[in-house]
Inverse folding.
């Protein structure tokens, strides 16, 4: 058994509440997933990420493959045990990171040859290798290896990229199904972080819809992936520089084509108002580095709008960062103090700012789930 998906409530505008039953956690959706690139949600300890209500986080296949290495993590019982994270985890395929290495990669039908951004060493990722790495990491959800189409891309380029992604999707799925039982979850059963009764569970795999900004290519991609029968479906190739209106168009085009009885995931989005809008449209899962990245640059998301805490006007402001927020930062610290930490270059600034931003994002999803629960159920 891989995941079980149970829709609890569907509303007329398209939003839905659901549960994704995974080996390490039953996830309530719609859900925002903090990004833990190298096995850490940057600047925030795992116990605090848990206390904020995060149900599932991301691990980055490319970065963890380079260091400490997937085989080392496998020997230590998998990524959950290595980073002491007891809840659900999703790993990306490494495709987006390889895409970002435009000057350091060569793409062929077989896979992608690239040079490490760390030391220039040469590596070769194929769909099969991506699956092997993700299985060794032991994620609850693995992603098919894809090629992210850049923006802008002409039609010839988008068609070729989609051809590769569809071929790689089938290869990813075939290899994953043949080897998914090799997850390291139960290698050290006395300290397993699995939910009780999950010993015979397997990880799941999601396919990724690509096709650039071309609606017919997106439709073609979605239809072919649905035929392959993945456990869930993601919409990728967004937040790569396109206008927000195009992002919305693609999501609106693709969502109705995806099965209603499986999770739907939009990758790499977005600002707070965007994630709320997409959740109310029927997107079940979203992730983004923005809460912690913005925090490290002193940008806070609040109910009163974005707040650049470096601004001099906050130098003696004793009010909390967000007067309408009940997070541990807003209960205890002032804007003046957070600005002081930033001005002094104190590492604590990144931690406190990140905690608040994560609380804000996760709070949006909780509010959306509560709102959906209170609305009439669509028939």
């Amino acid at each position: 058994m891989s995941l079980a998906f149970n829709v609890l409530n569907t509303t007329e505008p398209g939003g839905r509440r659901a549960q994704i039953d995974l080996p390490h956690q039953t996830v309530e959706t719609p859900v925002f997933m903090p990004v833990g690139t190298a096995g850490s949600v940057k600047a925030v300890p795992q116990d605090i990420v848990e206390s904020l209500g995060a149900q599932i986080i991301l691990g980055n296949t490319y970065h963890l493959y380079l260091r400490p290495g997937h085989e080392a993590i496998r020997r230590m019982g998998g990524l959950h045990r290595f980073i002491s994270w007891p809840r659900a985890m999703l790993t990306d395929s490494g495709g987006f990171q390889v895409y970002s290495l435009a000057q350091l990669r060569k793409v062929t039908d077989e896979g992608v040859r690239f040079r490490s951004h760390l030391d220039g060493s040469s590596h070769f990722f194929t769909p099969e290798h991506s699956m092997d790495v993700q299985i060794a990491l032991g994620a609850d959800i693995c992603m098919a290896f894809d090629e992210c189409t850049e923006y802008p891309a002409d039609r010839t380029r988008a068609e070729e990229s989609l051809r590769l992604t569809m071929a790689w999707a089938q290869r990813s799925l075939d290899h994953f199904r043949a080897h998914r039982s090799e997850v390291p979850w139960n290698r050290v059963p006395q300290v397993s972080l699995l939910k009780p009764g999950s010993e015979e569970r397997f990880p799941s795999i999601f396919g990724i819809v690509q096709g650039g900004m071309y609606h017919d290519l997106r439709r073609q991609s979605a239809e072919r992936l649905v035929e392959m029968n993945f456990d869930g479906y993601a919409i990728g190739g967004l937040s790569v520089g396109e206008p927000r209106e195009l992002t919305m168009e693609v999501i609106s085009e693709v969502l109705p084509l995806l099965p209603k009885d499986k999770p739907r995931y939009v990758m790499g989005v977005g600002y707070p108002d965007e994630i709320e809008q997409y959740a109310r449209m029927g997107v079940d899962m979203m992730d983004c580095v923005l809460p912690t990245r913005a925090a490290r640059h002193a940008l806070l998301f609040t109910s009163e709008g974005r707040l650049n805490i470096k601004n001099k006007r906050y130098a003696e402001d004793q009010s909390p960062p967000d007067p309408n927020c009940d997070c541990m930062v807003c209960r205890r610290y002032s804007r003046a103090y957070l600005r002081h930490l930033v001005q002094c270059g104190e590492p604590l600034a990144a931690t406190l700012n990140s905690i608040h931003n994560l609380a804000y994002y996760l709070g949006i999803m909780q509010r959306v789930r509560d709102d959906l629960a209170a609305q009439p159920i669509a028939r």
In short: Residues 347-374 form the longest helix (28 residues). The CA atoms of residues 234 and 339 lie 38 Å apart. Residues 295-379 form one domain. The chain has a mean pLDDT of 94.
